[in-house]
């Protein structure tokens, strides 16, 4: 008897949660589940900015897959997906090939540079444990070098964030908390260190409530962050960033440019021949690809239009996690020959952290929150995810309980 | 009434201990004492290899000068010495000039490269808090980059130590203790990391007892250190080191070359017109310059021939500390019109650390010690110095008590 083979590629929020849900829905041996991921760990992308700033160790952000996935029910393969062949129902890996009956694509996002010269080679991005850890070390390395250069080089102490979106603002908030420590460690006057956010549009945190944006800017400015809006980055070199504002070109000497202005869905989806909109698959209501009945798409690779606003849902962890429940349910429905159910987003609100004890957000019924209260809500949301993923044990191990200090 | 003005340049072992001794010998206002140093701290040069390896924080190694020097008795100037004019009795600083009645030169050592191309630009050296801290960060930075290079680059994980003398061996001993931590932190297989000591002569730790040398080599080899003797470094680049052995040139890809094969007395002494032997002043028995009655030289800038062996005393902390007592005593004698006393070295032995719990050494009456016992002796010697410098309070703050773990 052929057991249906479900293959999940990518262990981000969507992929890992689908796997965990599936292993709960099926008994041992009922179906064959394979999870493929580049690393032997899942990580919380929404915490990476803290790892990059050095305020939270990356081991808190990552979770070994074997801790949350039942290896009796799931085959776990550490490998990199090269391409998908949906007509042949195969996934090509760097070191092999997998045939599937049903596929869940959860390959996440990648950096996009809009063709700006130098971004790919000289700018850093907050996209993985490896890249976040490198930013932390890059900052330290430049601080450590400062007193050893023949001429003191401000490019070592100017940190430029390209893009004042969610990630850029959250990173800035952590960074200004970290700078006093870095300054003490490397004997550098705190006042010499600059953190500059360059934002191409007229405001940071576009789409957020203006009152909350103002709160966020004031909070960061009071801790030393400088904002330049309407500033389009034109080029990055190893030692500087060039931007244009009001028709004039300006240059900031900087060896640390954090690019947080552009992400897109993983290119593999488009390159594998799926029909895409901005690189994403416009999935059916039940989260299947419109072209293939046996392919689900979750998270950043999927696009769903919010009928209320007529624009796509944002690519958030929250949406990916909600989708994973529906996908797991629908996989079971298809195997049992039942009808699939449609995805309905349930907004729990959005909170952006601004450092240890500050945040802004919009929660249930569009209520605005800010300050310490918002930062506590953020932590509760994060702990709630850990609870769903790995139960109370995981919350105790990796959760955030520093509400008061 | 003119108070004699004693100027001490350099707050290394010799300079700081002379200052501390002088402030004990004289009451407030009896003489004018000025200490000049580049930084506002003194540091234990013999601990820097631990800071460089990352096994000990540099704040343990450095001591704020105001903690051990009585600011009621001593004027402390943070500045860099540019030159000395002994005929005019003046010291030129970067930001000023000082006139003295008596001078103590304690300007320490600097790196010498024997003209080998690339050493100055691409090799690191363990010579100051700044340079040791940079080595620690350079190691971490390369480990952090390893998984982000398009092609894995072994030059990031090969650590080459140029020179198997005291410093090179002690650094290797700490480094191999640190590598398991670094490997875990950056998800790198421990076995991929190499530590290679290149030694130009036929043996490491030249001058040490052969039995102890063998013990040291075996200890380090068992923890993964590779030795290449009779290997003369010919060139360093940013990514490799080239050496010659048995007439053949070999290249090791490495971004981390620690140069520990050559130090010399600070060039300022020679450049200021003092008669020198290999850059050092061959001082009189009472530690004064042969040319100037009012100039003492202490530590690495002084040369004294050991009459028993007919060769110069090695440039150790121990000798510098012993000299400082005699210099302080002789300054008082000269001021009081009494005869100076000659310096007599008292060897307390030499211990080289090989990591946390291992060491080799020769102590009183040429007794050989090694292993845990020697490492404890090393720590006791270090704590003894702290006691002399700043009393029991300083021992409690900066001492080493990890005898058993």
How does the SSE layout of this entry go?
2 copies of one chain form a homodimer.
Chain A: E1 5-9, H1 13-25, E2 32-37, E3 41-43, H2 48-53, H3 58-61, E4 62-64, H4 65-68, E5 74-78, E6 81-85, E7 90-93, E8 96-99, E9 102-105, E10 109-111, H5 119-122, E11 123-124, H6 129-146, E12 158-162, H7 166-185, E13 194-198, H8 210-222, E14 225-228, E15 232-236, E16 240-245, E17 248-253, E18 256-259, E19 263-265, H9 267-271, E20 281-282, E21 295-297, E22 302-303, E23 305-306, E24 311-312, H10 317-335, E25 349-353, E26 359-363, E27 367-370, H11 372-398
Explain this structure to me?
The structure is a homodimer of 405-residue chains. With 405 residues, chain A is of the alpha/beta class. The first copy, chain A, has 2 domains: 5-111 and 264-346, FAD/NAD(P)-binding domain, CATH 3.50.50; 119-261, FAD/NAD(P)-binding domain (3-Layer(bba) Sandwich), CATH 3.50.50.60. Chain A contains 11 helices and 27 strands. In chain A, the strands form 9 sheets. The first copy, chain A, has a 5-stranded parallel sheet with strand order 5-2-1-9-21, with helices on one face. A 5-stranded parallel sheet of chain A has the order 11-18-12-13-14. A 3-stranded antiparallel sheet of chain A has the order 6-7-8. In chain A, helix 1 runs parallel beside helix 10 (317-335). The interface between A and B is medium-sized, with 14 and 14 residues.
